[in-house]
Amino acid sequence: MKKPVRYVSVGIILAGCIVGGMLFLRHRAGVEKRPERVTVVRETPKEKPTVESVLATESVVKIKEESTAKDPYLKSQGPEDAPVQIIEYSDYQCPACRFSQGVLHGFMKQYPGAIRLIYHHFPLQGHPWSSFVHQAAECANEQGLFWVFHDYVFSHQSEWSTPLSPTQKILSYARDLGLNLDQFAACLTNEGTKRRIQKEKATGDDLKVNATPTFFVNGQRVVGGFLLKKEGEKIIRETLGLPPLDEEGKEKKEVEIKNKVVKTPATQLKLPPKNVATAKETS
Amino acid sequence: MNRGIDYFGLFLRIFLGCVFAYSGYTKLMEPIAQTEAAIVQYEVIPYVFVPWIARIFPWIEMILGCFLLLGYAVRLSALGVSGLSTGFIGLILLNYMMTGKMLEDCGCFGEGSFIHFSAAQILVVDLISLIFALFLVLRKKHILSLDGILLKN
Question: How many domains does chain B have?
């Protein structure tokens, strides 16, 4: 075999082995293994799911039973009968989870009263301070200040998520937020609280949560803040019967836009060139 | 003296290979959404490119890292690594100029990795990688490499 041919062939074989090996490892580790949807949101595409139909599905009932009935420490916001239910599994020391908080806040603001958000602890083993901070959040929950503490801890993640122990910082956050420090400090070492967190994490394990943040938007699994913004919002809008959004995040209202273009210059409407051209052609 | 430089080149090759292969490996062993979330932190990257970058770059890092470790197409792989390093340096600086902030976690080694660098730290690592990679590009001979076996006269 000629030298260049042999050289290139070896390269191709090597690259093939690397890619094949990695694909095998990914498969074995279950990466990207998307378990079947946890709930069936719609039986037929045209039917809008009712709150009852979504919440009556087996998995959601299971989650509800475990989180609502048996757990007086449920961390939720939004009306109980909201048509959209988002269950979040996240880790306080994970930057991707911090990023997704912005997306969630955006949803709560954009669809007021339409979303019920339920938070579940999912501290990862690879993050040294996660368990401690989740315990602190649960202690804040016992004093009725979970969401304030939750937002504060995420927004200050870069401050406490360092190689040094975050104990002092967490205590100072608790003080700043007006928590009862004696009660808070006692709770930080409480075994019962620890078990509660582990139990919550176990519900995530049961649902095959293998990455943080993982969301269940009306039972449909969405992993990561980026997909939450893209896919999650799609589910929300479908559930609420709203028109889908375009690439720029604007509602697709072609007919109305086309009518407006006739009267108004495109520059004022800030329409992408493609839409303008279509509108002019059809008008 | 030449022998010393040869071994130094070998050390640089293994170092760069390990860094890039590990970086690719950690990202490939996590769901793509995790990598996407890390990339989204860089606000200068348009959203439309995020899924592509998340899907393609870890494989490039993995393959280039392994090639360097094995010593296959060392100069070409080192050139690829220097290109990636330059790109990362440019991205971090551009992000800093546009947003005024240095990320606390660059997301270069995935979520589950035991290595977590801030953007400022990875900037230094990338600068060092760039220098090392350029050194390898300029070297014609690489000891203990597949190139040495395959291109032997």
Answer: 1
d(CA A220, CA A232): 9
Residue B140 C-beta-side C-alpha neighbours within 13 Å: 2
Closest by CA to A136, choosing from A189, A67, A214, A198, is A189
- The total number of residues written for chain B in this structure: 153
Which pLDDT score, from 0 to 100, does residue A96 have?
82
Q: What is the CATH number of the domain that holds A65?
A: 3.40.30.10
**How many beta carbons lie within 10 A of that of residue A205, not counting itself?**
12
Determine the Cα–Cα distance for residues B41 and B29; give it in Å rounded to an integer: 20
| pLDDT value of position A263 | 36
Tell me the CA distances in angstroms from A50 to A239, A264, A279, one per residue in order. Answer: 8, 40, 36
- Give the pLDDT confidence score for residue A136 in this predicted structure: 94
**Bond prior to A45 in cis (omega within 30° of 0):** no
CB contact under 8 A, B111 and A19: no
CA dist list (Å): A30 to A88, A133, B34: 21, 28, 15
Ramachandran category for residue A120: left, alpha or beta (phi over 0 → left; psi -120 to 50 → alpha) = beta
Verify whether the Cβ–Cβ distance A32 to B32 is below 8 Å. Answer: yes
Residue of B nearest to A230 (CA): B47
Domain around A10: 1-33
> Is residue A9 assigned to a domain?
yes
The answer on A268 and A220 residing in a single domain is no
Sequence length of chain A is 283
Please tell me whether residues A220 and A232 are part of one structural domain.
Answer: yes
Helix axis angle, A167-176 to A146-155, nearest 10°: 130
At A31-63, the pLDDT tens digits run: 655 443 333 333 333 344 444 443 444 444 444
Reading the block at residue A229, the tokens are 């913004």
Does residue A271 share a domain with residue A225? no
Phi–psi pair at B73, nearest 5 degrees: 45, 50
Preferred mutation among B28, B70, B101 to probe A, highest tally of A CBs within 10 A: B28
